[in-house]
Amino acid sequence: MTVDFKSEVLKRKDDLKADLFTLLAIPSVRDDEKVTEAAPFGPGPLAAMKKFLEIAERDGFTTRNVDNYVGVLEYGEGEQTLGIFAHMDVVPAGSGWESDPFTPEIRDGKIYARGASDDKGPTVAAYYALKILKDLQVPLSKKIRFVIGTDEESGWGDMDYYFTKEAKPDFGFSPDAEFPIINGEKGNTSEILIFDGANQGEFTLHTFKGGLRENMVPESAKASFSGNLSFADLEEDFEAFKIAHSVGGALAEIKAGEFEIEVVGKSAHGASPQTGVNGATYLARFLRTYHFAGNAKKFLEVAGHFLYQDHYANKIGAAFEDAKMGKLTMNAGIFNFDEADGGEITLNFRFPKGTDALTIKEGLTKTLSAYIVKVKQGERTQAPHYVPEDDELVATLLQVYEDHTGEKGYEQIIGGGTFGRLMERGVAYGAMFPGYTDTMHQANEFIVEADLYRAAVIYADAIYRLAR
Ligand SMILES: [Zn+2]
Which of 3, 41, 195, 399 could connect to 343 by a Cys-Cys bridge, CB 3.0–4.6 Å? Predict the structure, then answer.
């Protein structure tokens, strides 16, 4: 059976847009203060998920609401199940919007709203793809299960719950990233370096703080310390350091011989630490030139030498590279030192297949044993995920992409995580096209309207070829 998916999508583009606008108008942000038993992530995500199921029912799909955690709709029958995992929750709007984030608006061919590209737009494009197959009664040999999450942007509590209720589909994709495909996602783990705090010497470090979250590069860090040094000399050293290292910062003398200092670098996502400037490691690098002693010296040596620009964990003894999945990356995300309570540095690792959290921990322990008290393993570890290029799923999706765009498909591995990893044979597929402007999680988030329809065409053909 041959179907002109493009003309089928274009026939429905007004309906698609209207349904998308309805969903975009729901502020489906997780709200922990309004969590109830009936609304596990607050009322917003639930309302959007229910509205989605209502649309699917209107179109004649069989749906089920799994205890207000996820919405499911199914089509077709077969021994194997193709899963499609999308989500209705969005990150908070934040500031800096030119139009209301929950009143979708089209300007210059772009649909602006929170969730336009992550993930309501792609979700609706994939939904219309399935709807077309159903409208045309295209014969399929597999069951399609479309799962709508409500907690993708936070802890994936929706999926943790869902998989206690239903089995995982055999294979599938998540329309929540980019084309041509994301068929590999690195593993994710955190390790906390523990230091003793007590220190005294020519210089004493009182406090050192930097970073908000382990998955973000700390933009800035602050320290307070005492030492036998004139403010003028310190200032001269610091000005030279700032120029030499292209960082910002400020310095103050609290009282004679007691100082406060801040270094400002550049924040970035923790999955790509090499794109940021870690303010905390630069601050430590500056301070370690003075005569600190004992545990302060150890802390500053680790932060300012070992962790300084060590994005691939070479100096700390955890480096690893896989031929397909690339290099392990390390983000030193949170720094805390207090002369009374001791110190901690939280490191977040994104690692390819071939290494694991325990090996990373052993490497750190061995390399840093003279400096730290111990290494503590973080709470959540995710294993690396990779579906080979010659797997039929990946090969088919890349072929569909090539047939509709005329562009050669290629595999991509990322440091972040998508719902694609929920299935052993799962990938992320679209809906953003190469060269797109990434506005996800930012002010003035948008999706190009024409891309929405292009994606729907690709999804329709992809579901058809995977399930026929
Ligand atoms: Zn998303």
Answer: 195
